[in-house]
Every structure is written in C-alpha cells, then in structure tokens.
C-alpha cells in the first residue's frame, strides 16, 4: 500500500502536541507547549488560540466533553472547559509530593485517567512514573523507575495499557485489572528512534500508531507487537497523533521541526473512547 501524503492543516505553531478530535463540532484541538496555549482548528480550517496556560503537553477528551491536559510547568493535571476556556486542577501531587511534570494521558472505563510523569528522568536517573487517577480524585502510582515514560493508550478492548519509555525506544504493555490498577508489565515492542517513541493512538482493529520523535514517521505496531508499517512525514519530530475526521479515517499528527499539524487520509478507521460510560463494554 502506498504511503498517504500528509497535508498541513496548521503551521507557525509553538511546539504542537496533544491533538484531540472533537466529533460533535468537527474541530481538532491541540496544545502549543512553547507558546503556552491550547488551540484549535475549526471545521472551516481556521486556527484559534483559546486558552493560555504555561506548559500544556498531552491532552485528551474526557467522556463528559471536557479536555484534560497534562500541564508540565504547573506540574498538574488540568480540566479545561472548551466552551469558555476555564481551567481546574484535578491532580497535582502524590503522597504529599508534587508531580515531576506530567506529559501525556489517556482515559479508561469508569472515567479512570492514566498519565505519565517523566520530567527530569534519564536512562541513568530513572525517576519517571505512571499514575492512575480514579473518578473520586484519588491518585495511585502504578509504575515507577522509568526512563522518561511518555505516550500511552488503552487497547480498544480495554484489557491492556501500552506506554512508551522514550529514552529506551521501548513500548511496554500492562494488564488492566477490574479495579483499574495495572499489572504484568512487560516489553511489547522496540520501535527505536533517534530520540524515541512519543504519543500514540489505536485504530479500530487494535493496531497502534506511534509518533517516533527524531525519525520523521509514525510507526504502526500490530496487536502482536510487530512494526508492520511506517508512515513517513514532512518533518523529523512528530510528537503525538490521533484519529479524527469523517468516519475517523484521518490521522492527525503534531510535528515540531516545522511547527505544524499534519493530516493523513487512511483507508482504515481509528478508535476513540465512547463518549459515555454507558457505551463502554469492558
């Protein structure tokens, strides 16, 4: 299959990250980490800068329609109302200590939020961690001792969580327990990269799309943990990706070498968490 051509839908951005498709409005939201902004491209293709916050990074759509953002400068998890731009801190510490600097997040059943906290971690100083925030607001540490944990995503069947450890070039998989906790962590796929794997998302068939920072591509990983495809991009530094557009057949990618958001038309639909807990089957 020929690789799809990438179309630029926004440019001149300040380190774009965290793309989120809003089905109800046909808008693509994303953050500008170095610009300190949460922005969107509306259904007519116009760019809007909506919210100011010092260091937004990963962002996801909550089942209630709000946007949750990893704020690495404020060392917090934020809830953003896309209607008026108001923000609320929903988590900023664990065990009485502030986070290092949250990076990316994803949602699971019962509105549980999983997020990575890597700031300051290296191969030699593995202080990064992965957390879970329950619906009642309580935060649990699932894994620690990580060398820059980054993007993460729950499999479409809800049974497993995959996360990137950027500085080792590895993806890891863990089993989701009925209470939302994670266990059985194991290597899933080595995707490599000049820097390493960053943000990710699943398609409806369970294939994982991983933005590989420094390699100018999104690598597609099968459910068996094998790289099966490489989508080349016009820019070396993709940071994250999500599915959107009509029938979720467009892959949106944020890319920082050229400060842009790209769109790739694919022949397969992506997966997006259902909008309410009632629709969830796992």
Main β-sheet, in a few words?
A: 4 strands, antiparallel
Q: What are the secondary-structure elements, in order, as H or E?
A: EEEEEEEEEEEEEEEEEEEEEEEEEE
Backbone shape: globular
Q: Give the structural class.
A: mainly beta
Short description:
This protein is mostly beta strands and 282 residues long. The protein has strands at 6-11, 16-22, 27-32, 37-41, 47-52, 56-61, 67-71, 76-80, 87-91, 93-94, 97-98, 105-107, 113-117, 128-133, 139-146, 149-154, 160-165, 170-176, 182-190, 196-202, 208-213, 217-221, 227-232, 238-244, 250-255, 260-265.
Write the layout of secondary structure elements.
Layout lengths: L5 E6 L4 E7 L4 E6 L4 E5 L5 E6 L3 E6 L5 E5 L4 E5 L6 E5 L1 E2 L2 E2 L6 E3 L5 E5 L10 E6 L5 E8 L2 E6 L5 E6 L4 E7 L5 E9 L5 E7 L5 E6 L3 E5 L5 E6 L5 E7 L5 E6 L4 E6 L17
Antiparallel strand pairs: 1-26, 2-3, 3-4, 4-5, 6-7, 7-8, 8-9, 10-11, 12-13, 13-14, 14-15, 16-17, 17-18, 18-19, 20-21, 21-22, 22-23, 24-25, 25-26
């Amino acid at each position: 299959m020929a690789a799809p051509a990438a179309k630029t839908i926004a440019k001149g951005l300040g380190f774009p990250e965290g793309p989120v498709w809003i089905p109800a409005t046909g808008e693509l939201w994303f953050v500008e980490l170095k610009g300190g902004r949460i922005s969107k491209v509306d259904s007519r293709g116009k760019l809007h800068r909506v919210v100011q916050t010092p260091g937004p990074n990963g962002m996801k759509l909550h089942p209630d329609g709000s946007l949750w953002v990893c704020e690495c400068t404020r060392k917090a998890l934020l809830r953003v109302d896309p209607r008026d731009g108001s923000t609320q801190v929903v988590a900023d510490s664990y065990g009485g200590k502030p986070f290092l600097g949250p990076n990316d997040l994803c949602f699971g059943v019962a509105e549980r939020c999983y997020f990575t906290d890597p700031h300051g971690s290296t191969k030699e100083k593995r202080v990064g961690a992965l957390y879970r925030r329950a619906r009642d607001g309580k935060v649990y540490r699932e894994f620690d001792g990580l060398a820059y944990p980054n993007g993460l995503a729950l499999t479409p069947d809800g049974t497993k969580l995959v996360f990137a450890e950027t500085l080792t070039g590895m993806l890891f998989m863990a089993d989701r327990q009925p209470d939302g906790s994670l266990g059985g962590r194991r290597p899933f796929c080595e995707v490599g990269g000049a820097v390493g794997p960053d943000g990710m998302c699943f398609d409806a068939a369970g294939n994982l799309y991983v933005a590989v920072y420094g390699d100018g591509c999104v690598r597609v990983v099968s459910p068996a943990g094998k790289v099966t495809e490489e989508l080349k991009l016009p820019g070396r530094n993709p940071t994250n990706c999500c599915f959107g557009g009509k029938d979720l057949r467009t892959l949106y990618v944020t890319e920082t070498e050229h400060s842009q958001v790209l769109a790739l038309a694919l022949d397969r639909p992506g997966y997006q968490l259902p909008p309410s807990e009632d629709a969830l089957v796992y």
